[in-house]
């Protein structure tokens, strides 16, 4: 009983796992297997190097499908044709997907009609990777006619046009082929004239003077380099580096000093106080009080202008008296304290 139950569980686990794997594959790309598609083919009379199976197919940048097959025309349609009569075409088949059967049928019908209006296939490069893809676009059907072939295509046929590289090469070959002997002769003469003119210009160039100036410039540069080398060799670089290291160490010590941090904190606190004072309006009140005091002093001086002038005159007289007293004290110190100056002494005359 237990063994049979284990088998049933194992079988259920396998079925669930297969269902999950199928669901993941369907989400990742299996849905394209159920989308309606149609296939068209085109022929190239040039190399399609870089074009691989799975390369995208776009119509003016709009994704339509992908390349499904790349073979030679001789392998598909010319196996019973002699080798010398076979076309060296490359057959490329591509699959175009639609969201519904009706849309796919409409795309196939439009493709057949648009070929007559100039719908063509061209290989183009995808960015700088070098990988090629198929690009559908409209070209002039008169200048880009379909390639000639004598078999019936298995799928709807869309003519191709040369790639951009092939077009450039073909235009270059056409230009070279259009040149006649006279044009080549004229081109050769023009080239000869150009060479003669260049030789004449080169003969007029003062090569010797230029060489002498260049030699002098090289010598000057060499002397300058030697001087720079001597300056660098004689410069006290080691001492300078040591001084820089010492200064750096001192600066580190200064920055690590707690007093510096305290000073910075004090300055910050002072700045904060000043800011608070400025915001509180106390500073404005102090300034207004000073202005009022100055105005009062100006008014007082204006009202007592005469008294101030009298006081200044009295101070000037007093200063003059003090100056006179000072001079007297210097000449007669005792007389300044006791009385007037001493009497003059009369010397006796000689009686002869």
Considering the chains and any ligands shown, give keywords for the structure.
single chain; 352 residues; alpha+beta; six-stranded mixed beta sheet; 11 helices; 60% helix; elongated
Mean model confidence by pLDDT: 78
Give the fraction of residues assigned to helices.
55-70%
Query: Which term fits the overall shape?
Result: elongated
What is the number of E strands?
A: 6
Class per helix and strand makeup: alpha+beta
N to C succession of SSEs: HEEEHEHEEHHHHHHHH
Q: What is the tally of helical segments? A: 11
Most strands sheet: 6 strands, mixed
For the termini, the CA-CA separation is 187 Å
Biggest sheet, spatial arrangement of strands: 1-4-3-2-6-5
Integer-rounded radius of gyration: 57 Å
| Content of β-strand | 5-15%
Low-confidence stretches: none
Description:
This protein is of the alpha+beta class and about 350 residues long. It has a domain at about 35-160. The chain has 11 helices and 6 strands. A 6-stranded mixed sheet has the order 1-4-3-2-6-5.
């Amino acid at each position: 009983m237990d063994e049979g139950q284990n088998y049933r569980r194992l079988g259920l686990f396998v079925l669930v796992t297969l269902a999950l794997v199928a669901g993941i594959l369907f989400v990742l790309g299996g849905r394209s297997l159920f989308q309606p598609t149609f296939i068209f083919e085109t022929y190239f009379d040039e190399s399609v190097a870089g074009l691989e199976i799975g390369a995208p197919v776009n119509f003016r940048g709009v994704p339509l499908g992908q390349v499904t097959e790349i073979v030679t025309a001789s392998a598909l349609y010319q196996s019973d044709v002699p080798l010398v009569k076979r076309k060296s075409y490359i057959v490329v088949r591509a699959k175009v997907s639609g969201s519904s059967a009706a849309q796919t049928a409409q795309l196939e019908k439009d493709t057949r009609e648009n070929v007559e209006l100039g719908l063509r296939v061209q290989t183009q490069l995808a960015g700088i990777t070098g990988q090629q893809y198929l690009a559908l676009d409209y070209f002039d059907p008169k200048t880009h006619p379909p390639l000639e072939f004598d078999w019936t295509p298995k799928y709807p046929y869309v003519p191709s046009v040369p790639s951009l590289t092939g077009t450039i090469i073909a235009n270059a070959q056409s230009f070279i082929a259009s040149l006649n002997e006279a044009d080549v002769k004229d081109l050769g003469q023009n080239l000869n004239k150009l060479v003669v003119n260049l030789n004449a210009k080169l003969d007029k160039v003062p090569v010797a003077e230029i060489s002498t100036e260049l030699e002098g410039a090289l010598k000057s540069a060499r002397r300058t380099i030697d001087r720079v080398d001597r300056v660098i060799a004689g410069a006290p670089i080691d001492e300078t580096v040591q001084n820089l290291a010492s200064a750096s160490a001192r600066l580190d010590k200064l920055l690590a000093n707690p007093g510096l941090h305290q000073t910075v904190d004090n300055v910050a606190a002072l700045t904060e106080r000043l800011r608070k004072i400025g915001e509180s309006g106390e500073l404005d009140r102090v300034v207004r009080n000073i202005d009022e005091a100055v105005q009062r002093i100006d008014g007082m001086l204006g009202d007592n202008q005469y008294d101030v002038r009298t006081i200044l005159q009295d101070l000037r007289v007093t200063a003059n008296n003090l100056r006179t007293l000072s001079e007297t004290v210097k000449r007669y110190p005792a007389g300044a304290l006791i009385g007037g100056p001493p009497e003059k002494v009369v010397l006796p005359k000689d009686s002869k």
